[in-house]
Amino acid sequence: MPVPWEALIPSALLVTMFGVTGTLANITFRAQNQWKPPRYHLERWDEMMIARDNRLTGHNRGQTSDPVIPSRAASS
């Protein structure tokens, strides 16, 4: 059975475009998340820690060991 060579170019183009789109989406999501992978299956404790990190550092993924809210974050 002969190989339909004409179909290889559109197929390669389609696979390439899906790969580029997925890669750019991954880069965009990670850039918004301080280059860390997204969190899945969060429990209530995780949500409370995310809210705490947001109050302390101004970002959901920022972490600090200082339990006192800085004055710049408290004014906003």
Description:
It is a single chain. The protein is mainly alpha-helical. It is built from three helices and no strands. It starts with 7 loop residues before the first helix and ends with a helix.
Rg, nearest Å: 22 Å
Main sheet summary: none
Please indicate the count of domains. 2
Distance between the termini: 70 Å
Proportion of residues in helical segments: 55-70%
In DSSP terms (H or I, runs of 4 or more residues), the helix count works out at 3
Report low-confidence residues grouped into runs of 5 or more. Answer: none
- Sheet/helix structural class: mainly alpha
Give helix and strand order, one letter per element, not per position: HHH
What do the pLDDT scores average to?
A: 85
Shape: rod-shaped
Task: Name the beta content range.
Answer: under 5%
Protein name: NADH dehydrogenase [ubiquinone] 1 alpha subcomplex subunit 1
Region (Disordered): 54-76
Family: Belongs to the complex I NDUFA1 subunit family.
Main location: mitochondrion
List keywords for this structure.
mitochondrion; rod-shaped; mitochondrion inner membrane; transport; 76 residues; mainly alpha; 2 domains; transmembrane; 57% helix
